[in-house]
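Students often ask what a holo structure prediction actually looks like on paper. The answer is less mysterious than it sounds. You provide the chain, you provide the ligand, and the output is a string of discrete structure tokens encoding the 3D arrangement of the protein together with 2-acetamido-2-deoxy-beta-D-glucopyranose.
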Amino acid sequence: MEPFGAWKQAQAMVRVTALASAVFVMLLVGAPGSGERNDYSSVSEAHRGCVEDAVDSIVRDAVRTQKRMAASLLRLHFHDCFVHGCDGSVLLDGNNSEKLAPGNNNSLRGFEVVDALKESITSKCDIQISCADILALAARSAVQSVSASHVTWSVPFGRYDSKSPYSNLTKDLPGTEDTMDIILKKFAAQGISDPKQVIALIGGGHTIGRTHCSFSRRRLYGNLTSISALYSDPQYVTYLRQECPKLQTDEQASAIEIDLDNTSRDSFDLGFFRSLREGRVAIRSDMVIGDPANSPDVRAAVTLCTDDAYAFYNTFASGMEVMGSAHILGREEGEIRTNCRRPNGYSSGGGGGGGQHYAMP
Ligand code: HEM
Ligand SMILES: *[C@@H]1O[C@H](CO)[C@@H](O)[C@H](O)[C@H]1NC(C)=O
Ligand SMILES: *[C@@H]1O[C@H](CO)[C@@H](O)[C@H](O)[C@H]1NC(C)=O
Ligand SMILES: *[C@@H]1O[C@H](CO)[C@@H](O)[C@H](O)[C@H]1NC(C)=O
Ligand SMILES: *[C@@H]1O[C@H](CO)[C@@H](O)[C@H](O)[C@H]1NC(C)=O
Ligand SMILES: *[C@@H]1O[C@H](CO)[C@@H](O)[C@H](O)[C@H]1NC(C)=O
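The corresponding structure tokens follow.
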């Protein structure tokens, strides 16, 4: 059988940009263990209908109960893919976990929903789907649920799960203090090298969800003259300074939440880009993407996403396809975890195969 048949087939069913196709071809040719991965993806493809229904129903319920959960699930997939590829590494528990690493600690959420997804798929569909695939599906259902299903993309199966966390690689995640240049480099390192997709992904992520005051401090009290335009809306800055006063302790600052989208925090829409145009964004990196001193292609990408909802949604969707294919593991590097929080073979007695790399608290 043709290696990666299922990946190719799923890709063929949807609109993909030339760039996305190119990235996929590179992955297909370059990844080891191709036949083995195909075994997993063709087995899981046979259960696609059941798996997608199970994910959709649980994610919709979770988002109905708490709108923000859509944002939290999208962010989990993003933080999974940027750290050692889309391999479920973000889900592993333990003292050395990615969850506890700076940037993620006290910030990532939605892990209980992922547990419920794993359990539901296993019992209803009688198949083990990798935790990395579950995150990819959950992110898509989440975005559908807050965009009236206007925004969707293709999610092929076949991502193997890692056998250990990679907390040493969380530095690959973009940070709020990064320059535009560094942001572009970090996305390119994950195969996302089209600035339009970078901008659409950031804006799509931040049109929903919240941030803590701790992440807005540099934006408020740091030296902003290095950003060429001080184009913030003074009223918005006043509002942020009230919410996030300078003399807060770290603990206080971590407790207060601000909407990333000043106009419509719970719907996937143009709200973020409209807020950006008005100078009303909470974190420094969001200001940086609107810097008029950025390169023409970055500025064009921001203009496109601000003016054309259809182009923004489509570019976000194609960007999610590229992001969701970042550094997929081959079978000899990965496994299909039965519990998303620990590697297979982990045993509390310490004798398990996973225990070699990994310690549970
Ligand atoms: C330059 C790149 C990015 C930076 C620096 C960044 C940074 C952040 C920060 C600091 C927060 C708030 C965390 C907290 O206060 O606990 C946040 C939240 C969020 N980010 Fe990003 N982000 C970036 C790109 C993205 C992308 C590409 C996506 C998804 C496609 C995304 C999705 C989200 C979502 C959905 C939330 C809200 C999560 C929630 O409310 O639970 N971000 N981001
Ligand atoms: C994570 O946050 C907690 C506070 O909630 C803190 O005690 C702990 O030291 C932090 N962990 C790391 C690894 O920074
Ligand atoms: C990161 O940690 C993994 C194992 O947890 C190790 O195999 C890898 O070499 C480390 N990478 C770096 C860059 O330190
Ligand atoms: C702020 O940054 C500018 C340009 O990088 C520099 O000239 C200035 O001295 C800095 N001001 C402070 C207070 O750090
Ligand atoms: C949006 O910004 C204005 C100030 O420009 C502020 O009064 C308002 O509370 C903010 N709303 C949200 C949801 O951030
Ligand atoms: C994890 O950290 C806690 C608190 O620092 C410690 O008591 C525990 O022994 C650690 N567990 C492992 C397996 O290292």
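Residues 48-65 form the longest helix (18 residues).
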